[in-house]
């Protein structure tokens, strides 16, 4: 009887230890699953944060590029406007110079015309020619005799 009682105690002890071990195993497995779940959530959260950060950086980069492009475009348009303005000014200067040149030429021509009217004309009967024909003796006799 003692042996049976001892065996029963051993069996009960064994069963109790077995239940405790199983309970601890279940608790450990539950704890492990919870840790894995938290780890997955942490990784997912980290990935989402990294993705959001990258997206934000991408958007900031695009915005920065857009701003730089707009600045470049504004500068380019200002340069083109300045270039057209300078070309118009040069054209105006060229037109003014041409007008002044025409006026000077016209003034000089009118001056020459006024002076040409007042200049003495060559005498037609001078130097042995009259109305374009020779009146000198030498030329007259040379042509008449021959």
From TrEMBL:
Region (Disordered): 1-59, 77-100
Domain (Coiled-coil) ranges: 4-136
InterPro entries: CCDC34, CCDC34/181
Superkingdom as given in the UniProt entry: Eukaryota
Pfam families named in the record: CCDC34
Stored PANTHER family: COILED-COIL DOMAIN-CONTAINING PROTEIN 34 (PTHR23247:SF2), NY-REN-41 ANTIGEN L15 -RELATED (PTHR23247)
UniProt-recorded name of the protein: Coiled-coil domain-containing protein
Organism, scientific name: Phasianus colchicus (Common pheasant)
């Amino acid at each position: 009887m003692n042996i049976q009682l001892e065996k029963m105690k051993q069996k009960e002890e064994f069963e109790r230890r077995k239940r405790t071990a199983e309970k601890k195993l279940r608790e450990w497995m539950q704890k492990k699953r919870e840790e894995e779940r938290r780890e997955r959530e942490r990784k997912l959260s980290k990935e989402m944060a990294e993705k959001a950060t990258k997206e934000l950086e991408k958007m900031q980069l695009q915005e920065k590029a857009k701003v730089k492009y707009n600045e470049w475009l504004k500068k380019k348009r200002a340069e083109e406007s300045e270039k057209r303005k300078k070309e118009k000014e040069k054209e105006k200067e060229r037109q003014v110079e041409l007008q002044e040149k025409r006026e000077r030429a016209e003034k000089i021509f009118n001056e020459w015309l006024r002076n040409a009217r007042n200049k003495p004309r060559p005498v037609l009967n001078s130097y042995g020619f009259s109305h374009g024909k020779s009146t000198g003796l030498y030329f007259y006799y040379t042509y008449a005799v021959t």
